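Standup notes
- DV: blocked on the single-chain target, sequence here:
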Amino acid sequence: MKRYVKCTVAVELRSQLVCGFKARRLARHDITDFKPVLERASLGRGVVIVADKGYDAEHAHAYVRETLGGYAVIPPRHTNVPVWRTRGTYRKEMKRGYPEALYHQQNKDETVFSVVKRLMREHLSSRLVRMQNRELALRLIAYNAHRLANIT
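- DV (later): unblocked, structure below
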C-alpha cells in the first residue's frame, strides 16, 4: 500500500494565494477537514466559499452561512435525487440552482496544486509525518512568496 499526504487548501481566488491548509496522512473524507481549514484561513464576514461535491453536507453549508456569515457554492452530490428527498435547507437551495460561473472558479484550486507540484517537485522527501507536514507547509509558503513576487 502506497502512503501519501492529502492536502486540503483554502485559496483566495483573485490572487490565488493559499490562505489555509491541512495536511493529513490517512485517507479520510474531504468534509472532515472543511471546518479546520476555514478556521485557519481566518476569513472575514461575507466570504464566498466555492468547493467541489466532496464537501456537500448540510453542516458545511450551515457553518459558512451562520458562523462565517458567507455563502457556500457547493454542488449537490446526487443529482438524480429529487429536491423533496434531499435533506437540509441549504442543500435544497443548491439543488434548485447555484451560480455555475462562480462554481467554475474552483478550478483555481487545482491550478495552485499544479503550480506547487511543477515548481517544487511532486514528492515529499521526508519520512516522518511531522516532517512531511512541515515540508508541505514550507512549499506552500514558498509558493505564496513566488506568487507575491510575480503579482507586482
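- Follow-up: The chain has six helices and four strands.
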